[in-house]
Every structure is written in structure tokens, then in C-alpha cells.
Amino acid sequence: MTVAPDDPGLAPIAERLASHPRFAGRAIVLRPLAGGLTNRNLLVELDGGTERHALRIPGVGTPLLGIVRPIERDAAVAAAEAGVAPAVTGWVTPEGWLVTELLAATPVLPERLAGPDGRRAIGELLRRVHGARAVPALFQPLRIVELHGILAADRGHLAPDAPVIAALLGRLERALAPTAPPLRLCHNDLLAGNILDDGVRLRLIDWEYAGMGDPYFDLGNLAANHHLDGDAIADVVRAWLGAAPASHELARVRLHRIVSDLREGMWAVLQEVASTLPVDYAAYAAEHLGRAVAMAAARATEDDLALVAGGPVPRVPPRMTAGSGA
To answer: In angstroms, rounded to a whole number, what is the distance separating the alpha carbons of residues 177 and 188?
Structure first.
């Protein structure tokens, strides 16, 4: 028996789930789950609520964002094996639907990360993430920023401040690439809604952007999404390293905070022409790209570039204009 209350459009989804061996012969009830800027998320209740799972249905146009659903599944399984994510309980192909354990947890609150205990918890969580097994995918945020700009431009939509962004990408790459640490599994999307807190420990959901990359990007992404600075960043990095961070390590996190905002902003630029969800992607892009450009213009960023690169990073003409396709 399958039931999809309140929304007759859920009935075909319930029927498709019922054909999966994991859910065959079970009473299935589907309900919408709040949250998400890209996909459709549903609560799956089995047999009167004796089991509860989360179902993730890919949004329209998500392959354009570089999302590969089998890689998302592999990363989610690797993360669950490492104890940093809910268990994967189902995988529906060829649709690429991912079903996971529904945790009795809520998105992390700002006040949790405002104190040293919360910062230590998230730093230790990321250390476990970066110690998980490898997956067969790379995550290169500077290339992703460029590619999103090109794809948006090909569809007639140019990024704001494209020449400034392109020049900034070049300087960041000249500082970060030669000094990059070994690749590690990274989550790459550390929004509050993706960090769940059950009151005892933190875990991560939404592994669709996961891949092997620079672990400092995760730290910068966390700092950007949760407005961490100064002592807050130092507390997280200290817990992540298990030792006091050096000045160049903190500088690398701060530079990746800029990279994170560039990536988030250019993601929204592309979503403006790719997504059908009712989200104000233009405002989202303006917020993140504007913040990245403002941070890059600060004198402190020149110091960070020099700390990471081991000397001044010259300004040179960009090799391409992000968002222009040139």
C-alpha cells in the first residue's frame, strides 16, 4: 500500500519507491521537507512511521551545476562510513534519487558556532570528513567559478563585475595553487541547513558538491556561510588541526572564504538561467559576489596573498573574463 497525502503529485513518487526492493510491500507516506535551494526533499514514512527517511529528488538542470548523482551517493556513503553523515538507505536509478536515514536533529543554530564548544565541534567534524576515504571526483572551486560564468554567458546572462572577478580569480590561483595541500574528501557546501545538530554531535547532509579537493576550502566555506572571522576562524582551525594554526594557515582559510563567496555567487548567476525553483538567485548572487569583491579589495587580503604565496602576488591581466565567455 502506498499513500501520498495532501498532494496527488506525490503518488507517482510513492509508487516508484514501492518498486525499490528496500521499500517493496511497505506502506509509504510522503510529505514535503523544508529547505534546499536546488532539489526537492521529501520525508518518507514507512509502515505508520516506524521508519523515517529523507528522499532527495534532483532539481531541473542540476547536471549543469556539475552535480553527478552517483558521485553524490558515493560521497554520502563514504561520509556515513566515517560517522559524519546519515546512513544511505536507498538509491533509485536511473532517476538518481537518494534516500538516507532521517536524523532526529535540527540545522545548527548560529549561537552553537558562536562559542568555543561549537567551534571545536565543527572543527573536529571537518577533521573526520577530511579523513574519510576518497571518491572518484575532483572539486576545483576556481575552475567551477569560471565554468559557471561561461555557461551562464552562453545562455545570455553575464555575471556582474565579470572583469574584476576574473582578475581576482587569477591572483587567488597564483597564491593558492602552488601551495595546495594533499587532496581530501570535502563537503563544499557548509550552509547551516546542511549541518545537523542532535544536541550531542554534528553531522552533515547534502553531499552533491562533494569531491576531492583542498580541505582549506571547506574551512573557508564554513567561515563565509557563518560569518566567522578572527578568533572564531582560529578556534575552528585549531580543532581541525589538533594544534595551534600558523599564520599562513589562517591566511589560507581567509582566502578560501573569498573563493567560497565567488563560487556561491557564480552558482547563483547560473541558477538564474537554469533553475525553475522560486528563489531570488539574482539577490543571492549580488550578495556573495559583492562581499567577495569587497573583501578582496581590503589591505588585509594583500597580506594574506603574500603569506600564502611566500611573497607579493602581482596583478596581471586575466586570462578570461568570468561570465563573458571570452
So the answer is: 17
Question: Do the beta carbons of residue 189 and residue 79 sit within 8 Å?
Answer: no
pTM: 0.92
Question: Considering its fold, how many domains does the chain have in total?
Answer: 2
| Pairing label, strands 184-186, 88-92 | unpaired
Average pLDDT score over residue span 291-320: 89
Beta bridge partners of 91: 98
152 sits in which H/E element:
helix 141-154
Query: Do 211 and 137 contact (CB within 8 A), yes or no?
Result: yes
Cα 152 from Cα 159, distance rounded (Å)? 8
Residue 57 and residue 43 in one domain? yes
The 10 Å Cβ neighbour count of residue 252 is 27
Q: Which domain holds residue 189?
A: 106-309
Q: Which residue type occupies 279?
A: V
Per-residue model confidence as pLDDT tens digits over 4-33: 666 778 999 999 999 999 899 999 999 999
CA distances from 43 to 81, 180, 188, 246 (A): 23, 40, 24, 44
> What is the residue whose three cell numbers read 507516506?
29
- Assign 276 to helix, strand or coil: coil
